[in-house]
Amino acid sequence: MFEFTRVQNLAELPPPDERFIDVAVLDMNHRWLNVGHDSVVRAVRALTAELATLHDDVAVRLFSFDVRNRMVVPEHDGRFGLYAGTGGPGHLDPHENLGRGEAEIEEDPTWEAPIFALFDAIRADENAALVGVCHTFGLLCRWAGVAQPVLRGAELLGKSIGVQHNVLTEAAIEHPWFSRLAQSVGTHVPVVDHRYYDLVALNGAKPGVTVIGFESEMAGRDRVLTMVEFARNAGDPIPRMYASNHHPEIPNVDDLAALLNDKLTSGEVTREWYDSRAIVITVLQRNEHDERARLLTSEYTFTGLLRVHLERLIARKAARRGRTVSAAL
Question: Which of 4-13, 253-262, 284-293 has the highest mean pLDDT?
């Protein structure tokens, strides 16, 4: 029902198989140990199991492409109808990653051109969808020309970390999808942050791009974008290209604790790394009154979008086989 493979080289990618729906993860972590990538994998696995109870013959292969380290970028040739982009370390412009200080790493920037070409191809294909978080958000903002990365300075106490609140825009309140989030949670939504860079809006609206959320109503902080819809088909209530500058992929406290424990007991991570990430559990527990709202925000900004687009791929697969499946939203 579900298979997961890390792709280190495009030559390793198995051929398409009509039995499976193929989904791509764009891994932006550049070898850094993290919980975000595994949370994305777990989310797709859980959605596959959920949808298998509703539809016959559901089987998903999830391929994770090491974009920044091995520079493996999939081609958009009709095989993948759904992409999920992860977070990752460093500057949002790889040409600026020269290993200068905590906020930057060192990398070869030649992967940027093919990933931007992939974004172009996804935007041009009305049957393709992309849902991204954190580093992917920054790349999409640069690609679309809507915002530029600015390192958070000492006046902001450096990186934004922990549970923060973002503000939904008027466009979000009127949006056919995100208006439901506003009705459920309100206009100030709790999110899990872990970022060094703000994405500061550039002047001028971009066709097809809708700003969904910003950081704060403080003077000047309403230009710091945190949620953006980059493409939506005419007449469709669901964003087709969307990303957040926070971490909606982080699961509930119990699942996060289980994920961290699995990584520790398997020997994948050190105790020091585990302890540094387990702090997030404490932070979430301290903000228990926000947990329901946070998970609802995650549903509308990540999991729910993946669910809708995955269910649409299931319907297309069934149609190719001459069967009828009730279409998602």
Answer: 4-13
Q: CA torsion 149→252→230→204, rounded to 10°? A: -40
The pair of three-digit structure tokens given for residue 194, joined into one six-digit string: 């872990």
- Tell me the two tokens of residue 119: 């974004």
Tell me, yes or no, whether 328 lies in a domain.
no
Reported pTM: 0.93
CB–CB of 243/230 below 8 Å?
Answer: yes
The rounded distance, in Å, linking the Cα atoms of 172 and 213 is 7
- 269-304 pLDDT, tens digit per residue, is 888 878 877 777 777 777 666 888 999 999 999 999
Number of independent structural domains in the chain: 1
Where in the sequence is the domain holding 37, given as residue range(s)? 2-320
Q: Which two tokens stand for residue 62?
A: 């999830």
Residue 54 included in any domain: yes
For residue 327, tell me if it sits in a domain.
no
Average pLDDT, the chain: 91
Across the beta sheet with 2-7, what order do the strands follow?
A: 2-7, 60-66, 21-27, 82-85, 129-133, 241-244, 225-231, 210-214, 160-168, 188-195
CATH (domain of 247): 3.40.50.880
**Residue 278 domain-assigned (yes or no):** yes
